[in-house]
Each structure stands twice: as structure tokens, then as C-alpha cells.
Amino acid sequence: MTAYAIGNLHPKPVLDEEVFVYMERVQATLDPFGGRFLVHGAPAREVPEGDWPGAVVIIGFPSYENAHAWYDSADYQALIPLRTRHMSGDVLLIDGVAPGYDPAATAAVLRAASGGGAA
């Protein structure tokens, strides 16, 4: 099942050379784990609900195990300080949904678990 690394990053107004080095080297750390950028540093084009400051990064992986192995890899761990010294933010690793995912089926399971009646 596809998994994702998602970042909501807050770069400083002036980026340091280290950030550019990070960007130049990060893809090489993703390649062994099948990672590819789906979104890279884009500000939200529109925020119809809530507040979303920062730049969005979404990287897709073939599996959660691949995403986790990439993040923990020595090559990526060596790059992290080049980014974190110049931007704060949140990063998470998360599973995607399986092919054929049905949100109504999930609602039924959650409803039953909560003791709620049928809709």
C-alpha cells in the first residue's frame, strides 16, 4: 500500500546555501526506497478551511516500510540538519488507503464501534 512523507515546512525569509545543498542531494536519498516528490515546497494555493501556513512537501513511497527506511537511512539522516537549521515544521509518515477504499464502510465500522445506530 502506498505511503507518504508529508511536511508542512516554514522556511526563513532568506534561505542559506545549506538548504540548496539539501535540495540538490535529497532525491538521491529517496531513489533506493522508491520515493518520489508529488508536491515540493508549494504554498497552499487556497485554504478553504482552517489555517495552513508554510510550504507543503508530499513524497510518495511504495510502502510504509520504504518510507520509514528512507527517513531512518544514514544518507537522509545526514541531510536533515541542512534543512532543520533553516526551517521549522512538521514531518509525518503515513499510510495511504488501499485500492477500492470505501469511506462508507469505514463509517459503518466506526459507528458500530461507538455503539451508534444505523444511519
TrEMBL record:
<dbReference type="Pfam" id="PF07045">
    <property type="entry name" value="DUF1330"/>
</dbReference>
<dbReference type="InterPro" id="IPR010753">
    <property type="entry name" value="DUF1330"/>
</dbReference>
<protein>
    <submittedName>
        <fullName>DUF1330 domain-containing protein</fullName>
    </submittedName>
</protein>
<dbReference type="InterPro" id="IPR011008">
    <property type="entry name" value="Dimeric_a/b-barrel"/>
</dbReference>
<feature type="domain" description="DUF1330">
    <location>
        <begin position="2"/>
        <end position="97"/>
    </location>
</feature>
